[in-house]
Amino acid sequence: MALALEDRLAVTELIALHGHLVDGGELDRQAEIFTPDVVYDMSDLGQGEITGIDSLTAAALALGAANPVAHHVTNVVVEEVAEDRVRARSKGLGVMADGSCGSVTYEDTLVRTADGWRIRHRRMLARRVPLGGLGQG
C-alpha cells in the first residue's frame, strides 16, 4: 500500500520543524519531533550516539554557543518501510555564528504514534567531499 500524501506531508513538515524548534531554543518541545527513546547517531561527526530526549537536550545545552545558529533542511525523500513506519533522507545545512557552514545527510526512521509521526532514529552523515568521493584520485 502506498503511503498517503497526507502522511508524506506530515513527515516532511516534522523534519522541517526540527530546525525551527532547535534554532529558537524550544528544546522543551522535542517530544513533538522525537520518540522518548530516540537514538540520535552522530558517530560520523565523532560524537557517538545519544539516546532519549532528555539526553539530547542535555547534549545541545552542553554544546552551547558551538551549536549552529541555523539548521536548514531540504531534499526530503520519504519511503514507506512498513505500516506506520517510514524512512526519510534529507539534506541538512548548518550555519554557524561565524558564518561558516556544513552539510549533512539525515537518515531518519519515523514511526506513527498516537500523537502523530515521530523520529525514532536519526543518523547524521557529514558531507566532506563532492560526488561521494568519486573522481578524487
TrEMBL record:
InterPro entries the record matches: NTF2-like_dom_sf, SnoaL-like
* Gene3D superfamilies named among the record's database cross-references: 3.10.450.50
Source species, domain of life: Bacteria
Which SUPFAM superfamilies does the entry mention?
Answer: NTF2-like
Name of the protein described by the UniProt record = Uncharacterized protein
Organism per entry: Streptomyces lincolnensis
